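Readers outside the structure-tokenisation community will struggle with the description of the input data as it stands. For illustration, here is how one protein appears when written out as sequence plus structure tokens:
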Amino acid sequence: MAVGALWLVVALLAARQTAAVLQLPPRRRLADLETWIGENGVLRAGQPLYGDGAFTGPPFTGTPFAGLVLKPFTRAAEQALGVGWTFGTLLLVVATGLVTARLLPGPLSRRAALFAAPAALVLLVVSVPVRNTFTLGQTSVLPVLLVLTAFLPRCSARASGALIGTAAALQPAVLLFAVLLWAAGRRRAAATAAGTFAACSALAWAASPDDSWTYWLRHAAGAGLGGPPDSPANQSLHGLLLRLGAQGPLEIALFLVLAAAVAVAGLRRAARYAADGQWLLAVALAGCVAVAVSPTAWQHQQLWILLAAVGRVGRRRADRLVWPVVVVLVMTLHRDALVPNIEWIGLIGENAPLLAALAAACAVPFLTRAEPEWLRPRPAPHAAPAAAGAGRLPLLRSWPQPLTRPNLLLELLLIRVGYWVYSWVRGQAPDGRWLAEHHGWQILEIEAALRIDVELWFNLLVARTGWLESAMNFAYSAFHFLVPLSLLGFMYLRRPVLYRWGRTSLAFATLLALIGFWMYPLAPPRLMPGLGFVDTAHGPQDLDHPDFGALTGISNQYAAMPSLHVGWSLWCAVVVWRLTPALWPRVLGVLYPVLTTVVIVGTANHYLLDAVGGVVVVVAGFGVRHLLIGRTAEKAGAAGIPELPDPAGGADGAGAVTGTDADGERAAAERGPGEAPGRGAEPELAGTASGEKTGAPGES
């Protein structure tokens, strides 16, 4: 059932992507393809491809051979071409996903084999390179598919070389895969690839000698074609150096030196993993090298980076997800989702794909199949499954509760992305003025009936008292993030089990708050017209302007119910109460949500009932976490429920958990020397320096 659901997700994503392209007006659909083979395209006009004639439109950016291949499509009807091209691209993506799943290194469990193809297709369809290819009408998926097919186990040396040579004729950087073939011992295939590339390029030269001269010699294999090379979309070393301010001969020399170093290091690593039987990883690393050393590597040419997620990194199970999660997030999300848009750190997000490519090619220590942890990473110590409570609770009683802290990089990245998603969803919540103000009047009427409508007089009191206004404005803006993040950091370092409990509960509470923002858009008191509220933090707002000034460009101003200022402060109080038995910290913890409620009312940002809503979502967040998982592992340990030791001897630093590793020792004794767990023998090595037939896939 789970596999069927995943295939359904694939179908829905593919349908959505296809519809998103086809519903665009013809002039905006397949933008690059339109400039090439459309009614006024350079290929149809019969002018020089690279802008040296009377043609004033955008120049062609592909190779002369690509122009020769695309030339016949200029005779197709525009509407039929748009539909056919979109569905053709979709078929190429599907084929790429299936071939990728086929290249996964074995042995694979039956479950992994079933999930491999749909999981690969989901990641491909949501990735930026594929989305960009669909939107622009590019051909960059085809070289990737040709190269991957060339490394299938049943592909002969001649066929492998022909496929890679053809792909290189379409995208010259792909010629690096011929070097990979040579380094891996598949020299016949490498020679065939070079010969096929030369033949295709010679054919294009014979058909268009002037264009070929311009492309290969004047533009140095296409360098300088397309958009500005210093654009953030160009994720090559050349683009990075230009963005850092390097210019002229110095930049060119520096680029050549760095490119040579990356090429040597990356291709050597790729050959090493090819010899280990990890051909998909080897292809991904060589592709990452191609991205880095190309003069230009636009978004639609960066699909190789996503393939590098297949590499296995980390000997502990807690670390195994870090690398694939980083790669997937880099290749699917906007750079602002990864790091804050701050000048000194924004450079990382701006160049995240290139940094991921360089890390994969030159630095990330991928495991080899001969290492025991390749199949079985060392698990962290965890508490025994929770005992059954009332009825069927907890619902996920078999869910493990690790007793060690999670990977820090993964936590920071997920917290950052989670907050970006929260901000985006909050900004997309309904923000109609009439409905939000109508709900505001509802809240005021309910509070009047309950005789708790104290917001106006208290807000005016704060506005008249300078020191009180300044103190409340500071508290409203400073403590909302500072206190929860500080508590999370402390728990991560000193109380990792409570950290997992607290962060999960906070995540559930925030998710419930987002539902509240969507279901009940509410104008805060400061945006209610004609009532006299003073916005002490942001100053007067122009309520006659449809956007109420510049604030709505920052966030949705109608996301007032529930108040997460109060909700998160209550979470802090509960956490402090759990962390320490000391009196004064607990007193301060209890006072924090009370003072926060005073602040949000005094600054006219919330009603009292918003504070009640904040309390409800936080209590519900703790409740949902308890409903699903049960008591925290610390409480379980105190109740005498046994805890399971780390079979690897506590590599996570959790020395407090004791126990022997009898199962691990017995399994090690049963294995022969040099064997990895779960395997009969070491993997067959592919490729030697002296011959072709060394067990490498694709040789015959």
Remarks:
- The two ends are 39 Å apart (CA to CA).
